[in-house]
Design a protein that fits this description.
Structural class of chain A: alpha+beta
CATH class of the largest domain in chain B: Mainly Alpha
Oligomer: heterodimer
Low-confidence stretches of chain B: 90-105, 173-192
Distance between the termini of chain A: 20 Å
Largest sheet of chain A: 7 strands, mixed
Mean pLDDT of chain A: 79
Structural class of chain B: mainly alpha
Number of strands of chain A: 19
Order of helices and strands of chain A: HHHHHEEEEEEEEEEEEEEHEHEEHEE
CATH topology of the largest domain in chain B: Arc Repressor Mutant, subunit A
Shape of chain B: elongated
Distance between the termini of chain B: 47 Å
CATH architecture of the largest domain in chain B: Orthogonal Bundle
CATH superfamily of the largest domain in chain B: Winged helix-like DNA-binding domain superfamily/Winged helix DNA-binding domain
Low-confidence stretches of chain A: 1-6, 72-111, 322-330
Radius of gyration of chain A: 27 Å
Mean pLDDT of chain B: 76
CATH class of one domain in chain A: Mainly Beta
CATH architecture of one domain in chain A: Sandwich
CATH topology of one domain in chain A: Jelly Rolls
Number of helices of chain A: 8
Chain lengths: 330, 192
C-alpha cells in the first residue's frame, strides 16, 4: 500500500491521458497494455476512469441534458424576473429563524435586544438580521441588537459565528472576551469564568475584560483563564476537534476518560459519572455522534471493558469483566 | 476497443456504481479521508489482481468485505486504539450471500450529477465532450466542427474527464456533508 495521495492523483491523470489518447487513436496500444498490466493499482484506476467515461456516453444522461437545455433557454428569457425572486425567497427563509425567536422583542421599546437559547443537548442556527449566522451549541444563550450597530452577546455556553461583511463593525461581547470581528468564521466558548475564541477564518480584535485589544488571526485561538490571556496558533486537527459539535460530533483525541466524560456530559441531561476513580486514567480516541451517547457507552464496553448502569438520573461507569474487543490486541 | 476489457465493464457496472457507498464505508472505518481513499483504491486493486472476478456472486458486498478486512489489518497495526472503530468493525454486517439484482448501470442521482457537471463545464470543453460522447462524432470531425486541432480536442476532453472523475469521487451531499455545505454556502453568499 505505500503509495500516498499524490501518487493516487497522479495515477488518475495518467489513466485519463491513456484513455483519451486511446479513444483518439493516438496511443501505442502495446505501451498501454504494458503500463496497465504492471500493477493492479493501475488497472483499477484505469477502470474507474473508464467507468466515468462510459457514463458521459449514457443515452439517459444525454436526454437529461437536452431537456435541461430547453429549460435553461426558457429560464434565460425570464432571467430578470426569476433572479430576484430566488434571492428574496432565500432571504425570507433565512429571516424566518430570526423572526421566530426575535419577533417577541423586536416590537418592544425596551430592552431592544433579541435573544435565542438552547436547552441541554440542543443545537440551533439563528439567522441574524444582517445575514450573519450564529449556531448555538448545547445549553447556550445569545442576545443581539442590530439597530445602530451589530452587537451580539454570548451570555452562556458556546456559539459558532459566521460573519458576513457589513457597513457597521460586528462586535461580540461576553464576560471574559469582547471582540470586533471581520467577515469570517469564529467559535466562542465560555467555560468556568474563562473563555476561548477560535478564529477559523477572518480575524478578530479582542479585548479581555477591558484590557488592550489584541489581534487574533485565522487559525489562532485566544484563551482566557483566570484573567490571563494567551494567543496561540492551532493546527487544523485541533480546529476540527473544537468545531466538531457544529455537525453533531464529538472527537476525543487521546483524551483522559474523566475529561472525555465531562465533555460528553455537556450534552446529556443525565450525567455520566465514574464509579471507579482509577478509570479516569484511561485514554481514548474516537469520533462519536453527540446524539448517540449509547454508542459511546457501547464502545467503552467493547474497547475497554467499562460497563455502565443507570442510577437515578446518573449513568455510572464501572470496571466490568466483560470481553475486550478482540481487535484491540493483536 | 481492446483497451476496454470485460473486467472493466464488469467493474463499471457492478462495483463502481457503488463507489459512494465504498467511500462512505471506508470513511466510517478509517475516519480520515486520505486513509479512506487509500482503503478504497487498495480494495479495487485487489479485485483486479484476481482471475476469478467473474465468479463473484455479489461484487458490491465482496468489495465491502475487502475494505473491512483492509481496515482491520491497518487497525491492528495502529498505535492508538480508536474504540469507535473497533465497535464499527465488530458491528459490520454486509449480507454477501445473496447476489445483487441486476442493477441499472447508473442510478438516477448519479445520472443527474453527471448531467449537472457536464452542464456546468466551460462551454468549449463541454462542446468537445458532447460532440465526441453524445453525438459520437470521430475526433477529426469534432475538431472540424469546432474549428480547432485534434490535439486541442484531446486536451479539452482530458480536462473534462479529469473534472468529472474528481467531482464524482466527492461525496454526494448527504448528512454531515450537506450540513457543512450549508455553512460554506452561507459563507460564499457573504463574499459576493
Amino acid at each position: 500500500m505505500g503509495e500516498g495521495r499524490e501518487a493516487g492523483d497522479d495515477l488518475t491523470n495518467q489513466a485519463i491521458d491513456w484513455l483519451v489518447a486511446l479513444d483518439h487513436g493516438n496511443a501505442d496500444e502495446d505501451a498501454f497494455q504494458a503500463w496497465r498490466s504492471a500493477d493492479p493499482r493501475r488497472a483499477a484506476v484505469f477502470a474507474q476512469v473508464a467507468a466515468t467515461w462510459r457514463r458521459t456516453g449514457d443515452r439517459r444522461a444525454a436526454a437529461l441534458l437536452d431537456q435541461r437545455d430547453a429549460v435553461t433557454r426558457s429560464l434565460d428569457e425570464n432571467e430578470e424576473a426569476a433572479r430576484p425572486r430566488l434571492i428574496s425567497r432565500r432571504a425570507m427563509a433565512a429571516g424566518v429563524a430570526a423572526l421566530a425567536v426575535g419577533a417577541g422583542s423586536v416590537f418592544l421599546a425596551w430592552p431592544r435586544r433579541a435573544y435565542a437559547e438552547t436547552a441541554v443537548g440542543e443545537r440551533r442556527v439563528v439567522a441574524l438580521p444582517d445575514g450573519s449566522r450564529a449556531m448555538l451549541n448545547t445549553d447556550s444563550r445569545v442576545a443581539w441588537r442590530f439597530d445602530d450597530g451589530r452587537d451580539l452577546w454570548v451570555e452562556r455556553g458556546e456559539t459558532a459565528l459566521l460573519i458576513r461583511a457589513g457597513d457597521k463593525p460586528f462586535r461580540v461581547h461576553s464576560d471574559p472576551i469582547d471582540a470586533r470581528l471581520s467577515p469570517g468564521s469564529f467559535n466562542l466558548r465560555l467555560e468556568g469564568g474563562g473563555g476561548e475564541l477560535l478564529v477559523s477564518s477572518g480575524r478578530a480584535a479582542a479585548a479581555c475584560r477591558g484590557a488592550l485589544a489584541e489581534a487574533v488571526a485565522a487559525d489562532h485561538v485566544l484563551t482566557v483563564t483566570a484573567g490571563a490571556a494567551q494567543i496561540k496558533r492551532v493546527p487544523p486537527s485541533a480546529i476540527a476537534i473544537a468545531t466538531a459539535w457544529q455537525h453533531g460530533e464529538i472527537i476525543f483525541d487521546g483524551m483522559r476518560l474523566d475529561q472525555a466524560v465531562a465533555e460528553f456530559n455537556r450534552y446529556l441531561p443525565d450525567k455520566i459519572v465514574l464509579g471507579d476513580r482509577d478509570l479516569a486514567q484511561t485514554r481514548l480516541g474516537g469520533n462519536f455522534r453527540i446524539a448517540a451517547p449509547g454508542d459511546f457507552l457501547a464502545a467503552l464496553y467493547d474497547g475497554f471493558g467499562i460497563g455502565s448502569r443507570h442510577d437515578g438520573d446518573r449513568i455510572v461507569l464501572y470496571r466490568a469483566s466483560g470481553p475486550r474487543a478482540s481487535l484491540n490486541r493483536s | 476497443m481492446a483497451w476496454l476489457r470485460d473486467i472493466d465493464i464488469w467493474f463499471a457496472d457492478h462495483v463502481f456504481v457503488f463507489q459512494q457507498e465504498h467511500r462512505r464505508y471506508a470513511l466510517y472505518l478509517a475516519k480520515q479521508p486520505e486513509e479512506a481513499e487509500e482503503l478504497v483504491q487498495e480494495a479495487y486493486a485487489r479485485l483486479f489482481a484476481r482471475d476469478d472476478w467473474a465468479g463473484i456472486a455479489n461484487p458490491h458486498a465482496f468489495t465491502m468485505r475487502i475494505i473491512r478486512n483492509l481496515a482491520i489489518e491497518r487497525f491492528r497495526r495502529a498505535e492508538v486504539v480508536r474504540i469507535d472503530q473497533s465497535a464499527a468493525i465488530a458491528a459490520l454486517d454486509v449480507a454477501d450471500g445473496a447476489p445483487t439484482p441486476d442493477i441499472v448501470a447508473m442510478d438516477r442521482s448519479e445520472l443527474h450529477r453527471v448531467a449537472d457537471l457536464m452542464q456546468e463545464m466551460p462551454p468549449r470543453m463541454r462542446e468537445a465532450l458532447y460532440l465526441r460522447r453524445i453525438e459520437g462524432l470521430p475526433p477529426a470531425q469534432v475538431a472540424e466542427k469546432m474549428n480547432i486541432s485534434v490535439s486541442t480536442v484531446e486536451t479539452h476532453i482530458k480536462r473534462a474527464l479529469r473534472l468529472l472523475v474528481t467531482a464524482l469521487a466527492r461525496p454526494a451531499t448527504q448528512g454531515m456533508a450537506e450540513h457543512i455545505a450549508q455553512w460554506e454556502k452561507a459563507e460564499k453568499l457573504e463574499t459576493i
